[in-house]
Specification:
By secondary structure, the protein is mainly alpha-helical. It has one domain (16-221, 240-429): Growth Hormone, Chain: A. It contains 22 helices and no strands. The chain has helices spanning 17-44, 46-53, 59-72, 77-90, 93-111, 117-120, 123-139, 142-153, 159-163, 165-187, 190-195, 200-203, 205-217, 223-234, 242-249, 251-282, 287-315, 317-339, 344-371, 378-394, 397-408, 413-429. The radius of gyration is 21 Å and the shape is globular. The relative contact order is 0.16. One of its GO terms (cellular component) is plasma membrane.
Length: 443
Amino acid sequence: MTTLTDRQPLAPHASDPPRALRRAATASFIGNFVEWFDYASYGYLAAIIAVVFFPASDATTGLLATFAVFALSFVIRPLGGIFWGHLGDRVGRRSALSLSILLMSGATFCIAFLPSYQQVGMLAPLLLLLIRLVQGFSASGEYAGAAAFLTEYAPEGRRGLYASIVPASTAAGLLFGSLFVVMLHAWLTTEQLHSWGWRLPFLLAAPFGLVGRYIRLHLEDTPQFRSMARQMERKAPDSAIPIRVLLTTYRSKVVIAFGVTCLNAVAFYLILSYMPTYLSAELGVPETESFMASTVSLTAYIGFIFLSGALSDRLGRKTMLIAASLCFIVLTVPLFMLLDHAGFLTLILIQIVFGALLTLNDGTLASFLSEIFPTRVRYSGFAFSYNMANALFGGTAPFIATWLISVTGSKLAPAWYLVLASVVALLAMRCIHETAHRPLDDR
């Protein structure tokens, strides 16, 4: 097997496990932060992007077009998952993560310089789609790679806590995006926002990405990967393609991982990305209030995510993921019903509750998906199943929610969609054994 293990420079302080773990956590956090700051900016500015990049139409059609581009960027994610999984399992986690953050931050930076529909016509949305596809491809290796990286670095009994840094960093990116958009709405006029203000968040991707890449290049790969690489090099070269091994030997685990991730995909994008648009476009909540409510709930969510990660180390991944499914099945529709005509404080409280429910799943999923696959296909297994679920149900969630409301005339349609995803995840979790209290499979 060809690896870069022997050619990678030893990181400074690589012999110091606590410091190496802190550096790994920092590198993982920054990469996901950049990725999700971009998605937050796109989602929270959806109404403006609809006007800038698409022909004049009614508000619903414009939003559908914007969310369609958002969803199409996820179509390429399964292919990206295969690519980054192969690179991460054969060459190294560090190499895959260093390349993916460079590609992601570069593509995000380019969005800031795209021409509008008024300037170039239909070329504008086509260019937007092209860059979103590049983002989708690069992002497909980020979350899975960072989670596998941290899980393999984490000490026994604390994998859940350390892996929860990954979803926490996604929430931090969303939070910073929400704060940034709130400031844009507060400081700029509508004309300024539509003219140049919406471009500002995307300009920040370049410096963030360069910092993240620098940190990752000065890391050593995980102990599990280096150990596996040495073992494989002592044996006959392994020519098996990771995705082929995954879909033959570990097919049932891929199906289970996909099913569990369906809830995470739908809930994450409905609650943390689509909700401000839902509140303002469907319920008539002023934009400033809807963004502020999301900002407060995201802050609480980041605290809950670490608690859920720590609890999953004690109670088990299966217990936490089943509890998340049951809570969403029981509470989603009533909470959505309370949103209509709710005051500002009630909106915040409801979103905090939704965030807490999501952390039961989100704070546990990263460690769970890393633990069910062995080292030689861990990156591939996580990336493929996670990205397949997000391609089908995550990136499409804002579009489907908007479409369901348009077709049914019911503002509760997104809630029932989330309940359906919860049922799928519950059925999947009943088919797997507990993984929290077992050593990682180092095959």
